[in-house]
Automatic annotation (TrEMBL):
PANTHER family in UniProt: OS09G0557700 PROTEIN
Cytochrome b561 domain residues: 1-182
Coiled coil: none
Cellular compartments per GO CC: membrane
Membrane spanning stretches: 12-33, 54-73, 93-111, 132-149, 155-177, 228-250
Name listed for the protein in its UniProt record: Cytochrome b561 domain-containing protein
Length: 253
């Protein structure tokens, strides 16, 4: 029965980070100009924000659930270096740091200031740094647990290595797309300024397209589709890699 709590702990942590957490983090970084069809908003908020908030809220709840499951498994006792070894002890320390980061993130989300507040930058940077720290530590804990589990070390190492490699690859792809977005937006902004300058002398009633530089729609349709495709591929790959990882965890004796 005790092992079931440990296996459940590993399961919810994998779901929290590999599926929901990773996708939510990617949406916050690369989904801000994303639209589905012609829609940029859902229920009065940007699609990226609604998706980011939903996925990271679910991820946070799963992480806290996993924390309580391992407390039940350990019966409230801290991991001992002498009894459990330095690797599991390090895993517990890193996990505790992650939980502290998640609690701080929840507090920040509940009490964040108005977007137009002069102190908003403090929230933004604290939110980014804390989230990045927790996400980075999740990779460390995944590799640490490989050396704690007794069976199928090679399979575990391959899966976690593939997952880490994929995250690096998709970030590179998204950064390349972001670079293309910036080039297209800058070009459209210059064209809009030139067009407005030429029109000023002939027709003072013609107004510039104020959305041209910040909300390009026609020229960025292809990039938008590529982004949607990458997000879909990421979700599929994260699920595909999570399933065998969870199965291996539950097969541990």
């Amino acid at each position: 029965m005790n092992d079931n709590f440990a296996h459940a702990h590993g399961t919810v942590m994998i779901l929290a980070w590999m599926i929901f957490g990773s996708t939510g983090v990617l949406f916050a970084r690369y989904g801000r100009v994303l639209r589905v069809g012609n829609q940029r908003q859902f229920l009065g908020k940007s699609i990226w924000f609604q998706t980011h908030r939903f996925l990271l809220s679910l991820s946070s709840l799963l992480i806290l659930l996993g924390f309580f499951l391992i407390i039940i498994y350990r019966r409230g006792q801290w991991v001992s270096v002498a009894i459990n070894g330095p690797i599991l002890f390090t895993h517990s320390i890193v996990g505790s740091i992650i939980v502290c980061c998640i609690i701080l993130q929840i507090w920040l989300a509940l009490y964040r200031c108005n977007p137009h507040s002069p102190f908003r930058f403090i929230f933004n940077w604290t939110h980014r740094i804390t989230g990045s720290l927790a996400f980075g530590f999740s990779f460390i804990n995944l590799f640490l647990i490989i050396f704690v589990l007794k069976q199928q070390h090679i399979a575990l190492l391959i899966i976690v290595s593939l997952w880490t490699s994929w995250m690096i690859i998709i970030v590179i792809f998204f950064e390349l797309i972001q670079y293309q977005y910036r080039k297209v937006s800058a070009l459209m902004a210059r064209n809009a300024r030139v067009s407005y300058t030429n029109q000023e002398g002939g027709n003072t009633n013609v107004q510039p397209d104020t959305e041209a530089g910040t909300n390009p729609t026609i020229e960025n349709q292809r990039l938008n589709k590529v982004k949607l495709f990458l997000f879909l591929i990421h979700i599929i790959i994260s699920i595909v890699l999570s399933i065998p990882l969870i199965i291996i965890i539950w097969n541990q004796s």
